[in-house]
């Protein structure tokens, strides 16, 4: 690593920082999406089934899984005090909008690293070539500083490779997380619609029973 840093020149320092930052954020996002994808599907199925039988049991199940995005969205809507179906739908939508930034967290940082890393590599290439040309003596090839020429070329190549590697590595994971985000949005819309229908049926049934009881 020390030899690589020395060969890459001054731009290897920000590229190393960018790579460490990318690795840390990728690890965090991997843990987040692993936890969501592993638990959320089963949790949603159980909650919807419980809600058909007893809404209180569904609430308890959601509270036990409040670290999952869909659970927090459902809790926001179900915590309302006897809302009508329109209010319930608005609560679901508002809670979902609040979760979206958390689902695409660090996307801006990933995009910045993807865009900046190749530019830093290009900057290293230019600096390396400048060093090589500075070591050349026009008209006196034999007197040129060979070490400076080869060192500049090495810096140019290494910095370019480092910039591309950091950008490509980050891009692969960023696209993976983006696909997870898109699928999560689709899931939220699907299960949110299912819960809304269940609530609407329960609301209309309860209102019908109350109306029938009042007419007796």
UniProtKB/TrEMBL annotation:
Look up the domain of life of the source.
Bacteria
Q: Where in the cell is it found?
A: Cell membrane; Membrane
Mainly resides where?
membrane
The MotA/TolQ/ExbB proton channel domain, residue ranges:
67-189
Q: Does the keyword Transmembrane helix apply?
A: yes
Keywords from the UniProt entry: Cell membrane, Membrane, Protein transport, Transmembrane, Transmembrane helix, Transport
Against InterPro entries, the record matches this protein to:
ExbB/TolQ_transport, MotA_ExbB_proton_chnl
Q: What name is this protein filed under?
A: MotA/TolQ/ExbB proton channel family protein
**Which classification does the entry list for the species?**
Bacteria, Bacillati, Cyanobacteriota, Cyanophyceae, Oscillatoriophycideae
Query: Which residue ranges does UniProt annotate as crossing the membrane?
Result: 6-32, 113-133, 153-174
Q: Could you tell me which Pfam families the record lists for this protein?
A: MotA_ExbB
Q: Which family does it belong to?
A: Belongs to the exbB/tolQ family.
Membrane topology listed for this record: Multi-pass membrane protein
